[in-house]
């Protein structure tokens, strides 16, 4: 295992951990998550390190990575490219994205970041009645909460509007110790909101969305996940002509390291 930082185009320091050697697999976390809060990434990496260089990094503004305002989505494409070039030595990279991190991976591939194949776990889409769309002013409300010094309100909005949790449950969560950690990364919730763009608008996916993606794509969702998340995965898989849809054992927006590592190993070997 090795740890270090890379410097992105705008000077932001991006912290990473890498395991193993070989062609790189780069893992992108979803909203609020980073290396210290998602042990599944390390567990998966350790299972794949016999054959691949597996890299997990803290997205800008989280964990041990720095941040450089103002935020635009392209800065995170540059962060990913820096990881691929500086840690992966420019070798053909498989990128695994969790949730809204999967949307980021798709957007980066569309923008031309050198990615050999994409593995997406429950990417975000709301295209029918399976889940309500995000409020039209979602990004603006997140930005306002952060600007006004109300990070807890930004987290609560994310939990209710994006994660679809009952307001009563979120109110109880605000009294727990881990809430402070969520508030610390609250500014980055608006980053993910911008990455999902209009895929959570409740409208059909635009025909031109991700139209330049011609690499193999694996779209996974837990067999027992929430119906809305499975529906979003199916919609994105149907939208991408080079994709394969793969329901996997798991529930509640995740799976286990052994299942995920096996799926990734097979996907890479077959593509």
UniProtKB/TrEMBL annotation:
Q: Which SUPFAM superfamilies match?
A: alpha/beta-Hydrolases
Presence of the UniProt keyword Hydrolase in the record: yes
* Keywords assigned by UniProt, alphabetized: Hydrolase
Q: What is the top-level taxon of the source organism?
A: Bacteria
Q: Which residues form a coiled coil?
A: none
Provide the species name: Kribbella deserti
- Per the database record, which ranges form the AB hydrolase-1 domain? 33-260
The identity of this protein, by name, is Alpha/beta fold hydrolase
């Amino acid at each position: 295992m090795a740890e270090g930082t890379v410097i992105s185009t705008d000077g932001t320091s991006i912290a990473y951990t890498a395991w193993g050697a070989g062609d790189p697999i780069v893992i992108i976390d979803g909203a609020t998550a980073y290396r210290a809060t998602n042990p599944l990434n390390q567990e998966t990496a350790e299972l794949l390190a016999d054959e691949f260089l597996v890299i997990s990094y803290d997205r800008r503004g989280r964990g041990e990575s720095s941040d450089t305002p103002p935020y635009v989505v392209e800065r995170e494409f540059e962060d990913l490219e820096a990881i691929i070039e500086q840690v992966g030595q420019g070798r053909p990279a498989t990128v695994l994205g969790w949730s809204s991190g999967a949307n980021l991976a798709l957007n980066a591939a569309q923008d031309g970041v050198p990615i050999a194949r994409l593995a997406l776990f429950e990417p975000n889409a709301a295209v029918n009645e399976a889940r309500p769309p995000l409020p039209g002013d979602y990004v603006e409300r997140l930005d306002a909460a952060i600007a006004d010094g109300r990070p807890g309100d930004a987290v609560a909005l994310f939990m209710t509007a994006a994660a679809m949790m009952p307001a009563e449950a979120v109110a109880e969560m605000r009294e727990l110790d881990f809430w402070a950690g969520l508030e610390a990364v609250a500014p980055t919730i608006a980053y993910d909101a911008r990455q999902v763009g209009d895929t959570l608008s409740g409208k059909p996916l635009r025909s031109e969305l991700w139209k330049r993606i011609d690499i193999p794509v694996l779209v996974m969702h837990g067999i027992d996940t929430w119906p809305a998340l499975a529906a979003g995965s199916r919609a994105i898989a149907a939208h991408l002509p080079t994709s394969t849809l793969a329901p996997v054992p798991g529930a509640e927006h995740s799976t286990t390291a052994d299942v995920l590592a096996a799926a990734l190993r097979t996907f890479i070997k077959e593509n």
